[in-house]
Amino acid sequence: MAEIGMAWTARGAWTGIAAAGAFGTPHDGVRVQLREGLGIASLIAGQEQEPALERALDSRYGLSLPRGPSAVSSASHTLLWSGPGQWLLLAASSAGFAEDCAGLAGLAAVAEQSDGRAVLSLSGAMVRQTLAKGCMVDLHPRAFPVGTTALTSIAYVNIQLWRAEDGPEGAVYEIMVPRSMAGSFWSWFSASAAEFGCAITVSRD
Amino acid sequence: MSASTQPFRRGDGGLIDRSRPLSFRFDGQGYQGFEGDTLASALLANGVRLVGRSFKYHRPRGILSAGPEEPNALVELRAGARREPNTRATVVELFHGLEARSQNRWPSLAFDLLSVNSLLGPALQAGFYYKTFMWPASFWERLYEPLIRRAAGLGRAAGLEDPDHYEKAFAFCDVLIIGGGPAGIAAALVAGRSGARVILCDEDSRLGGRLLAERREIDGQPAADWLKEALAELASLPDVTIMPRSTVFGVYDHGVYGVVERVTDHLAVPPPHQARQRSWRITARRAVLAAGAIERPIVFSGNDTPGVMLAGAVRTYLNRYGVLPGREAVVFTTGDEGWTTARDLFTAGGRVAAIVDPRTALDPELTALAARIGARVFAGSVVCRASGSRALTAVDIRDASGREQTIACDLLAVSNGWNPTLHLTSHQNTRPVWDEAIQAFVPGTMPVGLSVAGSAAGRFSLAEALADGARLGREAAADSGFDSAAEPATPITDPEGVALSPVWRVKGGKGKAFVDFQNDVTDADIELAAREGFRPVEHLKRFTTLGMATDQGKTSNIAGLAIMAEQTGKTIPQTGTTIFRPPYTPVAIGALAGHHRGRDFRPTRLSPTHSWSQNQGAVFIEAGAWMRAQYYPRPGETDWLTSVNREVLAVRNEVGICDVSTLGKIDIQGADAVDFLERVYCNGFRALPVGKARYGLMLREDGFVMDDGTTSRLAQTHFLMTTTTANAGKVMQHLEFCHQVLWPELNVRLVSVSEQWAQAAIAGPKARAVLQGVVDAEHDICNKAFPYLAARAVTVGGGIPARLFRISFSGELAYELAVPAGYGVAMMEALMAAGAAHGITPYGTEALGVMRIEKGHVAGNELSGQTTARDLGLGKMMSSKKDYLGRLMAQRPALVEADRPRLVGFKPVDPTQRLRAGAHFIGIGKAATMHHDEGYMTSVAYSPVLGHWIGLGLLRNGRERLGERVRAVDPVRNGDVEIEICSPVFVDPEGTRLHG
User: Fold this and answer.
1) What is the pTM of this model?
2) Residue B495: is it exposed, middle or buried by C-beta count within 10 angstroms (0-12/13-18/19+)?
3) ipTM score here?
């Protein structure tokens, strides 16, 4: 009887909040990419499971398990430390991610979070000046090099922040916020980036 | 643009741009100034001396200083929603179209009716508020306070919403330098060259400090050249940040500094997307305070007359702004520095009629200077009186023999040495210490990581400032791990005289002599405080108001202490000093709030189905941080109750859907997961089969109920717990505590999945029929295959993973369906489409609440943290076969007393009567007093099924009193309703509907 229903279309975490375009002064001092369609899962390993989990992640994705606040990436996957014995596995595409999760199920408590997080990628000449208006973490390159992550808050929204490989305009920061608070986060972000000008693109899968 | 419209503007000189004239208005009158002016310098250039009336006596006041310490020249700036009271004209940068008004005058500045207060002086002396208006107390709010406020107000707030945007920001550095004068710049250069990350803050728009106001030489060149080179070098260093218009207002623990940056205060209106102000929290490994010093006035009769000005301020107006603050000047100085003022006045084209110096033996170089500029010298003399009604016209000079003579003048420059600007050093609750040599307080114990350079340390010469700055900048960088190659050579400066013999007050003049200009505290008030026993400094401050209000006594404290010391036969250090607290200068609340006002005060959480509810016309209500759909009014429905009744009846008779995504959801996995649940819930979970859900009740360690919800066993070692919306975060923390601290040995892993799932309740006799149209056909959900409390993974929409739970809050046949949050809206649309034929109706939290009250289910109102499981009628859930958190403490005698308030239901004896939550239960015929209080109504609802109001409440020994009558008394809303005690389950007590 399921055919009674209409087509089930997934709604991105940023839908209705932000869309491709630009805002603020006409300078493009900040570039934001709304990263829709990521696969995200939390992995929590018991002490005795860690070596096996580490081997599995290494053989599947070529990623080593970070033991401190850092992020490691391959072309398709990123592994973020998110607390002692806890990680987040990110896949650039949610396609096939269920298999990723199933494959790790015996090695850690795996819980899919793909729909529970809104992720954006920030870069541009004024990105640090923008983040300074809410981020209580020192982002100077000496203090926050590529591959660093922090669990912190911006505008009273709990976030996870990490620094990806540099892009054409220098440092690239990724921010992950709870889906329910994406609107409030965006309200802060758009007010903070407006003076520098901001260009928005959307990446899907 | 000629300066002809500005009669007191010099023809050349100064750091103003004469090619950029700016028009402005003061008290409605149009004037012109130049870019680079402050409001004060522009007013002086136009010959405006009288700028305000004083706080208590409404005496005419002029401009005393040229900086943030200004006590007199407070004005209302801008108009309309941007109107801002108590801005200091001395730091307000002039902009085109600036509009300012004087304060404290009525009907006009020149003619102020309330200046009669001056004649009432004796009645208004220190402490008069406390004495005069003591009695009767009831007059305070109605009469005295409005009267005092009208008479003594300091400007008016805009009273409209602030149209500007404010920001908060965070910065980090190795070395923070506070103050951009010679010491601060020297420190920044050395620290910056070492590679350290340096932030240099200065409250001024322009860096340079006193170098901007003095005619000095460094290394044989004009100081301005040295400054220009230094600033260019700082700008070239990549890790040096210069923050002008930024005041460091507070020092906090662990190297944290509060800073307010006036981003666009110098413009009429902020440009698009620009903040008006920004408050910074700067974390610094080390900091160098190079805040300079504040000049001290002298207390003598008429010392508040417009035209009496601090000598350093006179030099600032002359040299920085190209303004002559007067044409005919007298200089009253207790040290060598004041003589420089005479020189600069002369150089700028003013006449110096006299130099008055209480010292008898004067350096011949000084007297030679006086001869050169044609100034009469009064050695061993003092100015004992300044006179003039709205502006200075003459001063009386008294020599050592007591002989007085009057000299006509329109400017009196007063030089009495400087007080280090050490406020920040005492923000960590340490007091400054007295330095006898310079007759000033200097920093005492310093906050960790902070050092003090130059004038702020009481080392007033330019040479000392440059040397201190370089040394401390180097040390601060080295402490942060950045060593400098070599000790830099200290620049050579031109000679300067620093000899000083300060005079605190000149007695014997006729008329009032002011210590604190802003609060109208006179020397007589200090003497009165001494006579009446208010001698300790803290008492002195509160009795006289000395050192209060916007300037916090920056120009007045020392003189006040000196007079008290004299009265009590003590020294100034024995008299002590009050301690400085943040902020150093006033900070707008808007800057501290930043982005977080209105809707952005705190984050708002939106359910994944929010946009669907919006499209359905929902009225939303705040539930914690969440916005939840409260009800869905339909066209023609004019009150909420009509809508809610319709929604309830739709669920009871047909089917309804409600968003429940906001419930907390915790994923629990691990070999010991069931043991973990056994310990955190008071009821048993060990026997729960895979594929089933169970209601669970969680106690706090102290035995009271903490939260409730259902937990489902998804697999042998995999559970999904739900919590109430309100307690989602608290329960997660509690479980983490239990796992990490109490039972780390348990193999269990917890993670919140609240955000991952959109969840809807589908309730009503036709719920199954609707779901059969949504759940993929291969999942059999008939009553037999999917009975009450079944909980299983299913798929929807052709393979989308979902979870289905047969649980009910409404008492009807009901399910909760969960899908990944991205499909939340699609799920609601699919349910609506599938339910169209069954009369499906969306319902909100209000109908949800009505139905749970009809069923006697507890919620937040009953889970108040003061109720036990037994109180709530859930005592039987407390297992006797296992141990669990709260078990022992729940057995405390007070928690098992027979007549504890216990949950029961209530209905009005007269069914037309309304019930109110919060009403207290009082026996019939008894007085409504605390003594007769038997409990209170926790929840009420109008039951459309029963056709009358119903309530739940906690009544003393309630379970044993069914059928009895009491009253529900609500003194707040004048309610007094006779009610009957009944079972809390009003609808379908047998629970047959659940299993339908």
Assistant:
1) 0.94
2) exposed
3) 0.97
